[in-house]
Amino acid sequence: MERSRLASTAYRNGSTATQGSGRAERAVLVGVDLGVRSRDTRASVKAARAQSLCLDSATADECAPQPKTTRQSTRSQHSVDAAREAQGLDAEASLAEFREVLLSAGGQVVAEVMQRRPRPDPATLVGSGKVEEIAAVAASTNADLVLFDHDLSATQLRNLEAALPCRVLDRTQLILDIFARHARTREGQLQVELAQLEYMLPRLTGRGKAMSQLGGGIGTRGPGETQLETDRRRIQKRIDQLKRDLEAVRRVRRQQRQRREAVPVPTVALVGYTNAGKSTLFNTVTGAQVFESARMFATLDPKLRAIELPSRRRVLLSDTVGFIRNLPHTLITSFRATLEEVGQAEVLIHVRDAASSYGDEQKAQVEKVLGELESLSKPRIEVLNKIDLLPEEERAALISRTGAGPKGKSAPGAGAAVVALSALTGEGVDDLFAAIDAALHSDPIVEAELRVPQHEGAILAAIEAGMVIHSREYEGNVVRLSVSGPASLVGRMRRFRVRKE
Question: Could you tell me if 138 and 165 are in contact, meaning their C-beta atoms sit under 8 angstroms apart?
Fold first, then answer.
């Protein structure tokens, strides 16, 4: 089905795609830190003014009160830092990550601006003074767009577009643009378009310059808000159609899962922060050739491959879309069909970047999304990936701390088993296989003694293919086997089992 003219035009007018000339679009990044409380700000300003008076003064008496004020300022700053740490806020780290998101979209950073406020400005988010500064920076760098590392309301978007000399995008719009670039299958394209339209619908009145190009000529635009209402109805109609199409996709996925459930093959899903190395690990473990990239959100469409564990059990491994800090809710809703694989998985493999400086915060963000998907209580294996990027001492200490793989099972809700590995080199992958074996609780591994006549070739072949044979003895025309394997397969051999006295 062809995408509506309104959706495609409005979104292209706000996208970060490279321009027709082929050069990357030049962007000014704006970081917003809203973790500073007004009382702390006043104390800091008061201390700064007092310190300035002290520096300008030639007498020691005027400087005498300063230590107390400085101590108050220090205490205020400590309280601000503690509040930020408690809330997990790190504006500098967020802006650095936002820079990587822009590079993944094919853009070029020409300037960065940081604004710290106790609360967002309702009209412009950052305040009128900072808007003037951003406008000057954008004009001096010939920027094509200004990107805000924060979501903008319709009013804020309209006011910023009126005040700045170029286009304005917020964090969610940039992420949606990358998703649109990387969607390769029909399902992925449907999910991305739905997320785009649902985000755009309440912001039509704020599109400003982008919406000004949607008229069809003289006499085609009605009076007042007629065109706006027409656009809204057109978008809503398209959203309804996309939801019907995605529901059909979900029905097909349910049917596929029902067919898989007819044969007891458990599913294991890879989850994690974007660019943690999930697709690289998926390729290393399965031998597949799915697309892998150092850029964010390289994987949008789920991939399923069968792998064999050391116990000879077969499981389905699923590669899923990566998460990110403040993942737009519209994406979680739109990608529900894809993320259902996470909900249906028996075990989750949480892939983390061991070389990242913000690993704990990334872990918290992933667990937040898993909570929204009601999958936080599932058994998890925590994979510390990219250990090949660590210094030798850190790598050795990490491997020593995680051990050679877990020995026991990971119960639902319990602490996750931890495995250190490198998906690029393959180091530690055997430990991951052992951890998956230990975490699976359906179709458990059982041991058995079997006596199988040699003329039962099909039975012996099934044992060879699906079980681990510990010992084999020949008693005339009968083979006596000591095996371990999935309970479902061992159960089919009940007529050959040796009854223990």
Answer: yes
